[in-house]
Design a protein that fits this description.
The chain has 357 residues and is α/β, with parallel strands linked by helices. The chain is 47% helix and 8% strand. The chain is built from 15 helices and 5 strands. Strand 1, helix 3 and strand 2 form a beta-alpha-beta unit. It starts with 24 loop residues before the first helix and ends in a 16-residue tail after the last helix. The chain binds zinc ion. The site of zinc ion has 9 residues, from helix 1.
């Protein structure tokens, strides 16, 4: 497989072209991310301190790597009174659940968890999976994760009930996947708010091409999901104008070694041995998404992520290739377990790539 000679994007990346030196257009057009700084972060934290009825801020916790580090920083380093919120996702990996319990015990924080109606998440996953299999459009693969996009509505409700003025998430600047943007008609350097307004139209166009996504029982949660999908999406910005919503790694450098070192030592944080990397093991649907991306595009979010880290000088190209060889190996056993749990035919796992176009 041909890859860019500077980053690791393969020739199957949507919209890619290479110049005479074999360098891709995404490397050529890349604008380095500019971080705010710790001073700006402290200003926001200090403004929120003592303002809520019991808590200074909310941290949205999944038990995964970056949200666990975020709560450690907020509670231990900055002395914020933190309320942790977790969506009880039926596909949460048991180790992520254990990590959350350890965090609660070690940091002494309160944790509120909420869930949707029984069977809701499973039903949406199954219906969107069926739609995707009838006509596999890689732009629509994120639809299998639509339920988790609905959590912001609940988080805002909890924030309002405790009068909390600050919500801190563990997002970083490199995980905004470029190929997903390109597939929906966006570009890699667009700002988050402008991207979220425009991609809803891209998504609507793609959904119209597959009527199976348009069944009312999936369509309405889907629309709501995209309107609320994250702190930068239109409804969240509109409905929570008086609540600051920030991502820790827009202020502090994202340093994998420091993050892993600290959470493992101080929070007894773990990830499954069967997982080849520490990123995104917390929800089992992740493996299924990787499977679809590999079948349709020959890449995953990891190719995109490491390419950005290379351009930012955070990892070498050689190390990225070694990691990709391991991490892009999908865990068929986990996917089979997941499909069985929703009574879904596992024959898709042995289908050839041609059947996905
Ligand atoms: Zn490149």
């Amino acid at each position: 497989m041909k890859r860019c000679s500077r980053c690791v994007l393969p020739s199957s990346m949507p919209g890619i072209s290479f110049d005479s030196e074999g360098i891709c257009n995404y490397c050529r057009d890349y604008q380095k991310q500019t971080l705010k700084n710790e001073e700006a972060l402290l200003e926001i934290l200090n403004a929120a301190r003592g303002k809520g009825s019991q808590y200074d801020c909310i941290v949205n916790l999944s038990g995964g790597r970056d949200s666990s580090y975020t709560i450690l920083k907020m509670s231990k380093d900055y002395g914020m009174k933190v309320l942790a919120i977790n969506y009880r996702n039926p596909f949460t990996h048991p180790i992520a659940t254990r990590n959350m319990k350890n965090i609660k015990d070690i940091l002494g924080v309160n944790l509120i968890d909420f869930s949707f109606k029984p069977g809701f998440h499973e039903r949406i996953l199954k219906q969107n999976l069926l739609a995707l299999l009838k006509k596999t459009d890689p732009a629509m693969i994120p639809m299998v994760c639509i339920s988790c996009k609905l959590i912001w509505k609940n988080i805002l409700k909890i924030a309002k009930s405790y009068n909390v003025k600050l919500i801190v998430s563990g997002g970083n600047l490199f995980e905004q996947t470029t190929f997903k943007r390109v597939l929906l008609g966006g570009d890699q350097n667009q700002s988050l708010p402008s991207y979220y307004s425009s991609y809803i139209f891209g998504l609507a166009r793609r959904a119209l091409a597959n009527y199976r996504f348009l069944r009312p029982r999936t369509l309405f949660p889907t629309i709501k999901g995209y309107l609320y999908s994250n702190p930068y999406s239109p409804m969240v910005r509109m409905k929570a104008r008086h609540i600051d919503k920030i991502d820790l790694f827009h202020y502090l450098p994202w340093n994998e070694k420091e993050i892993l070192g600290r959470i493992q030592n101080e929070l007894n944080w773990q990830y499954p041995e069967s997982n080849s990397g520490s990123w995104r093991f917390d929800c089992q649907i992740g493996h299924l998404k990787d499977f679809f991306y590999l079948k349709t595009l020959g890449l995953t979010e990891k190719d995109d992520f490491y390419s950005k880290l290379i351009r930012e000088g955070k990892i070498s190209r050689e190390d990225s290739l070694i990691r990709l060889a391991k991490e892009n190996e999908v865990d068929i056993v986990e996917i089979r377990k997941l499909l069985k749990s929703i009574n879904f035919d596992t024959a898709i796992l042995t289908a050839s790539s041609d059947q996905f176009h």
